[in-house]
Amino acid sequence: MDQQTQPAQISFGEQNCRCVSNIVFNKRHVFAVGTWNAKKNNEIYVNEYLELEQKIVQLYKIPINGMVEKIIAKKEQLYVIYIDPQQRKTKLCCIELADNGRHQVNFDLLYEGLTNVICPEDDPIIYLSSNKSIIQFDLNKQSFDNIIDDNDLYNLCEQDPHHKNLFVRSQNNYLCIQDTREKKVNKFKAHSLQILDIDFNPNKQYYLITGGEDCLAKVWDIRKTQYAIKSFEDLQNSVLQAKFNKFHDQLVSLAFDDGTISLYNITSVSSVPQLNKEEDYLVKQYDEHEDSIYGLSWSRGTAWVLASIGYSGHMIINTVPTTEKYKILL
To answer: Which positions does the entry assign to WD repeats (predicted)?
Structure first.
């Protein structure tokens, strides 16, 4: 086996976990993990993967007053969506990381129905999406603006990184596309069961991938929603996570409820120019987890490192096989 594909692993005791998020720390592989326990103290762990040593070290351990649903990083700031076990309500806090393992909490507030915090890079604006609305928050002016407000209930929400006015939300098994400059919503059936993840292609405009409870993953061009431009139909389990590689978008990782991860090369629908028509293929399947994978995140340090978190609290780092890396670079 290629030495560089050997997995590294870290455990957070008997803590359950449901999310992992990458953090931009120069060229370092840094990830934040949040625990999810109703009857225990919860923490956020910030960890670094040392690629040459193939090991994971802990940088921060931060207490949090609830079960962590999601962590979104914007430089040194972590926006944390969590559930207060006493009030049984959703809250949002902002934690700023400092040197030497220190941190400070900038705010901690009640935000019922919050599902995501969208943080465009190099932009003082963040977006708070709930199951009914999307609010624009200017960090410099400390001002709010309600840009989408609906009576319908939504599950997931993501912003097109190429078009700041374009948002895609899920409503059970439907996708809903809306430009904030218009009132019209393009709603279409994307899966036969619940949509579990949405991820935009970072390099190709209008392209995104969805993963569903129906054991399907699909790539869409949201300008032409009559059909998916690619469908992964040979899958046997629900697709809990579906993520484009942030550097080379022909690499896509899918995580399943049986604890496996599949890495694909899908050059046919990527931004990579094709000199010859190439077939898409499975690069590798990873099977180190023993239970469902609730979090999947590519490193922002380099293109080749992938972090995953299982519900039982094990974070595993895998890497793209060297042979595949050379195919892409050469």
So the answer is: 188-230
